[in-house]
Design brief:
alpha+beta, 6-stranded antiparallel sheet, 25% helix, 24% strand
Length: 178
Amino acid sequence: MSIWWSLHLRREAASVPLARRFLLGTMETAGVDPDISFDLSLALSEACANAVEHGGDQAALDEPEERGIPQDPWDVWDELPGAASGQYRVTAYLDGEKCRIEVADSGPGFPARRTLRSAAQPHGPQQYPPLNAEDGRGLCLIEQLADHVHFGNRPGSGAVVSFDKVLKWRKDALLMVS
């Protein structure tokens, strides 16, 4: 059996814990080992925080009324000008013995393409940000927590961070691999 879900979230700080709790709830219900769930939820939090911070232009985050666009509260997902950069998407797949998570935004993308990395591949010290840097650790943390990671750019504009991890199951798991 497999589970997959996709969330379309606003680029707001409050969306990060929402996505994390959704993932943790899904994994708890399915019976995934809590240590694996924690690692994936932390990696997801970092990817979502990057999408919120870097995933579009600031004008898209302004209230539509401030831009002269009337907003009906029931139409929050209508295609308003700049709406795509005011949102990001999280998709998770729990399938068999692996979980894959993808976070996609509509920002400028990554400046230089990063490639697929296996956890077994060595890291050089030049890949990590300086210890006194105020940001830049999120992508490195995702690489450390996941088994495989891919950082890429969407056609047109936007970044995609996808990562996966082999799952371990609790003995009472509902979705144990058969």
